[in-house]
């Protein structure tokens, strides 16, 4: 178990055909930290995130979140336990508005079904207005007011990335998984992202695991780093230590 028992993946292995994408990988994340997973292309970073969120089924290993093993859960059950995520390629409904995309995220969490909605109309209505309130809160938090009624296809890429982040936040997660949040962003947008990450951790109290290639963002925004290469862990520690680790330097620069 990690220092405060918040999150631990232990001995995760998965292979595709003959390719060992991850072999006996462990990841410890403390509550309240921003933890980066770094490594060269094909190192297994996204695969690890996918095993945690259960998009992929690991061949072996355990994932403990707040003391419970979540490795047998379905992806939506993982979300209900308090783990939300974003994807490397934005996965939004491109012909719907910013607001509706966020509401959809929240609806996947609804506690009432269609029959109870009919029987307990008042309760369903209350739930709907709670959803809207939460979505409005996140729209304010991420400064998305100007875009709330715009169609996703019509807003800049950087805003789309923020909406995806918002859709994860409306789930009110305790742990947020971000897959390459800075990819496709310009320098200014990446700086803004660094502020959002800090605010999400400090103001919302959400722990973050992010897969990231932008080393400046990793150095500026992350508390700890796990470096992977060829499906194995190379190093774990504070960003300034990990980037100096000879194995990590070698993995990035080649022999
Ligand atoms: N669904 C899949 N089917 C087959 N092979 C896969 C699948 N997912 C990942 N892999 C393989 O597993 C290895 C690790 O891939 P992964 O996407 O996790 O790397 P990564 O570190 O996230 O790379 P990048 O930085 O380029 O996104 C690669 O060899 C990849 O081709």
Automatic annotation (TrEMBL):
GO terms for cellular component: plasma membrane. PROSITE patterns: ABC_TRANSPORTER_2. Residues 7-255 form the ABC transporter domain. Keywords: ATP-binding, Nucleotide-binding, Transport. SUPFAM superfamilies: P-loop containing nucleoside triphosphate hydrolases (SSF52540). InterPro entries: AAA+_ATPase, ABC_AA/LPS_Transport, ABC_transporter-like_ATP-bd, BCA_ABC_TP_C, P-loop_NTPase. PANTHER family: ABC TRANSPORTER ATP-BINDING PROTEIN, CONSERVED COMPONENT OF ABC TRANSPORTER FOR NATURAL AMINO ACIDS-RELATED. This is Branched-chain amino acid transport system ATP-binding protein. It comes from Desulfatibacillum alkenivorans DSM 16219. The lineage of its organism: Bacteria, Pseudomonadati, Thermodesulfobacteriota, Desulfobacteria, Desulfobacterales.
């Amino acid at each position: 178990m990690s220092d405060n028992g918040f999150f631990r993946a232990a001995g995760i292995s998965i292979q595709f055909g003959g390719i060992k994408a991850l072999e006996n990988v462990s990841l410890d994340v403390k509550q309240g930290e921003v933890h980066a997973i770094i490594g060269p292309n094909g190192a297994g970073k996204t695969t690890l995130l996918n095993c945690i969120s259960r998009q992929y089924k690991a061949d072996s290993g355990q994932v403990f979140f707040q003391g419970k093993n979540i490795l047998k859960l379905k992806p939506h059950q993982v979300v209900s336990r308090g783990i939300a995520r974003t994807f490397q390629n934005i996965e939004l409904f491109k012909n719907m508005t910013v607001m509706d995309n966020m509401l959809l995220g929240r609806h996947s969490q609804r506690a009432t079904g269609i029959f109870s909605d009919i029987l307990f109309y008042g309760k369903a209505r209350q739930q709907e207005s709670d959803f809207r309130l939460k979505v409005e809160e996140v729209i304010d938090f991420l400064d998305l007011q100007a875009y709330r009624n715009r169609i996703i296809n019509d807003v800049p890429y950087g805003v789309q990335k923020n909406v995806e982040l918002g859709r994860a936040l409306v789930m009110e997660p305790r742990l947020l998984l971000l897959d390459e949040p800075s990819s496709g962003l310009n320098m200014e947008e990446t700086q803004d992202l660094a502020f959002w990450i800090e605010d999400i951790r400090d103001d919302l109290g959400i722990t973050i695991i992010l897969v990231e290639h932008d080393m400046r963002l990793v150095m500026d925004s992350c508390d700890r780093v796990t470096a992977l290469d060829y499906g194995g862990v190379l190093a774990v520690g504070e960003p300034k230590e990990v980037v100096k680790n000879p194995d990590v330097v070698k993995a990035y620069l080649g022999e």
